[in-house]
Amino acid sequence: MKQEHYLEYHIIPIICGNEISAIMITVEDVTEQKLSDIKIKSLLKEKELLLREVHHRIKNNMASVESLLRLQYDSIDNKKCQSILIDASSRVSSMRVLYDRLFQSGDFIETSFEAYFSTLIDE
Predict the structure, then answer these.
(1) Could you write out the DSSP letters of every residue in 97-119?
(2) What Rg value do the Cα atoms of the chain yield, rounded?
(3) CA dihedral 45, 47, 50, 56 (to 10 degrees)
(4) Model-level pTM?
(5) Tens digits of per-residue pLDDT, 47-77?
(6) Which residues, in sequence order, are bridge partners of residue 28?
(7) Cα dihedral: 118, 81, 75, 94 (round 10)
(8) CA distance between the termini of the chain
(9) Residues near 7 by Cβ (< 8 Å), separated by ≥ 6?
(10) Maximum CA pair distance of the chain?
(11) What contacts 97, CB < 8 A, 6 or more positions away?
């Protein structure tokens, strides 16, 4: 069975006086390290794909809750209950927008409030 090997080499000149009198070459088998790097990159791509899928599902779930609250609003005549439902729907919408902003920024610690508020107002 043929197996690929990854080698790392270094060429070091040995200088005697002002001339190169010899060359030392070192070769190291880095196959394990290289295969580990390839596996890590593959796992990272898989993690990113799963994260995008989870993000998509969370956004859809928040949008569903928001829609259900608005549907319930339409079926109630009580103004106080309608106000409560609209308030709850708006809160879910705010959370969805913030969650989406954080995910799109790639930085879960900081996000642009200008972009967040602009999107929130548009919503």
Answers:
(1) HHHHHHHHHS-SS---HHHHHHH
(2) 29
(3) -90
(4) 0.60
(5) 999 988 998 899 899 999 999 999 999 899 9
(6) 8
(7) 20
(8) 61
(9) 27, 28, 29, 30
(10) 99
(11) 116, 119, 120, 123
